[in-house]
Amino acid sequence: MTQAMLDVHQGARIAPWLEPLWKSLDFHNFPNAILLHGQSGIGKFAFSVELAKALLCENSNADLRPCNQCEACHWFSSGNHPDFIALVPETHRKLLPHADYQGDDSPKRGKSALDDGDSESGEKKEKKNISIEETRQAIESLSIGSHRGGNRVILIYPLEMLRPDSANTLLKSLEEPPANTIFILIADRVDRVLPTIRSRCRLLTAPRPNRDQGLAWLREQLAKMNGMTISATDAEAIYDEQGGAPFSVLDLLIARHNKDDKDELTISILASRLLLQSMAQGERVNWLETAEKIHKARYGFLLASMQRWISDMQSVKQGGGPRYFPKHLSTIQGLANMAREQKLLQFWQSLSKARRHENHPLANRIQLEALLSQYQLIFKD
Q1: What is the pTM for the complete model shown?
Q2: How far apart are alpha carbons 150 and 53 in whole angstroms?
């Protein structure tokens, strides 16, 4: 993740479309656990970090916002508050407030990202997940009283990526929450969270901004980026392709601008573009060659692109218009006319099933080959 992306996430605070949600919170009677859920890329993580800071702020006159003046706020901003624990995968640790990193990308302090001591291969395997060791160590630390005698906050994101054993460890603490401990749980897909965990939290739905509001925020952020020149048409097209998630769009635009061939997001963007170019060929899609070229990208990112493409085909097939790729209307119309409706529905179901297992260590190339081969069959009797 580039410094520009870090600056955006750490300085974003509360997105305008999440302000009403913030104002609805009762800080004087805050629940032991909340579960904030909503579409990925709409600012839930930045919102939750600011919420954690507000709950730990020691200035009672802060008007339900962090005062940024007290000792607790200073500690939090420096990434050193002893009563704040963040359980996030390695890919998200740098989004924590002003964390200080060594050259090997390992946090200097262990509270917010506990080191599980795995081998090098194990670290790569755990990169996008929260291990049981991290969860147990964090939960065990809750048995000790808070360091400053006030609230203690534990933030977990993304909740749906907890392994079953980690989720069960968390569940035990939610059933008997330690005194003055507040759990902030964040999920992109609440349907993947254990029902037993959901039932022990107050559910908060993070809304997606309307298109005008999201694009206005995006333009404001882009104006702060020196050297970035992106046309309004291009920005709007990517905004639609990403399902109206402004934070995701901004990350994509920054990654594309930096042209870092080794950056995971850049790789995924290029692979997604190649994938959609291949899918635009319909029955003539070269699924073997395409899978070979794109399989190193984020599997979930590619699946999301495929889902949006198929969603637009289904919409056009039923007489509607494309939501995600309006600039490719003629291509999608042609494909929709040739597609067999029942096979199109079956392929959508296959994609939905694949997304439920997108974070498992499967052979991505084989999975992509199977899906693209099925896609080809949509256009055959």
Answers
A1: 0.79
A2: 12
